[in-house]
Amino acid sequence: MDRNRKILIALLSLVVLSAILAIVDISMTMQQKEKKHFTLEAPQYGPGVGVVRIYGRIEMASQRTGMLGINSGADAIVERLSQLAKDSRIRAIVIRINSPGGTVAATQEIFNKIMEIRKKNITVVASMGDIAASGGYYIASACDYVFANYGTITGSIGVIIMSPDLRGLFDKLGIKMNVIKSGRYKDILSSYRQISSEERELIQELIDTSYEKFLKDVSLGRNIPISDFKQYADGRVFTGATAVEYKLVDQVGTFHDSLSKAKELAELPDDAAVYEKTSSPFEELLMTMEAMYGGFMRAGGLFPADTVNNSIIEYSYKP
């Protein structure tokens, strides 16, 4: 069986399984219409800490959005933050970040929402996981207090845009593009031709503008002058421990340490409730399927990594 046939069979199997799971999920949803948005850890009532998890790439709509409506993108994260801010029980929020960053606008929207929540006297604490780089760090910098694990990969303060140069491949395959455009820059960063010096200057201007915004927002969120950290804001990555030395992170600690700190800053007792958003078993299964199948399709399967020309300006760590 050749590779293409295996891919086709895998995709068909995924479609069938998704359809079955959809029917199951609809049935479960109808039976649980009145289910609340939050579950509580002891005690089962009263003021507490809300938890928001930001995992994977940061973009307006996650790659899972199309699969039966599950969305973990920036829109959903901002909505989750808004819900917590309106809940009278929430005195503090812990944002768990495990992300290499993502698109500029999506990152900025989450940053702005956190800054808005801080003005409402709700304490916000960041907890970094394996990685909180570029846009992941951008979001963390908006919080009142930032934790990183000792070996967390963070930093990567900067902006990037990439476009593959496929001219050699096109020539080899005899592919030529017919382009009719309204202006000389309409097909800027196309993969079928070389970028001109004028185009490079235009793109660099966009990069520089987004970079300056990154620096200003980190300075605002961390309440430190740009001059204190700009020397480290050259795209380099470093560990959580080093980030503490650079004053970009407040303390080395775990997720549970961040919960304790949030309770302390919000003057809550140690046993205050922790409010987590619930996920149905069906949602968890779809997330696992996305990790397996979605990653395969985008990175080495149907669409090899970095060969599809998205050309989006990003606050993203690209090793």
Protein described:
With 319 residues, this protein is an alpha/beta fold. The protein folds into 2 domains: 1-30; 37-316, 2-enoyl-CoA Hydratase, Chain A, domain 1. Helix content is 41%, strand content 17%. The protein has 9 helices and 11 strands. It has helices spanning 3-31, 74-86, 104-118, 135-140, 167-173, 197-222, 240-245, 255-265, 281-298, and strands at 38-40, 48-55, 90-99, 101-103, 123-133, 145-148, 153-155, 237-239, 251-252, 273-277, 314-316. Strands 1, 2, 3, 5, 6, 7, 8, 9 and 10 form a 9-stranded mixed sheet that branches. It has a two-stranded antiparallel ribbon with strand order 4-11. Strand 5, helix 4 (135-140) and strand 6 (145-148) form a beta-alpha-beta unit. Helix 2 packs parallel to helix 3 (104-118). It is globular and about 70 Å long. It starts with a helix and ends with a strand. Mean pLDDT is 82; it is low at 29-43, 64-70 and 290-309.
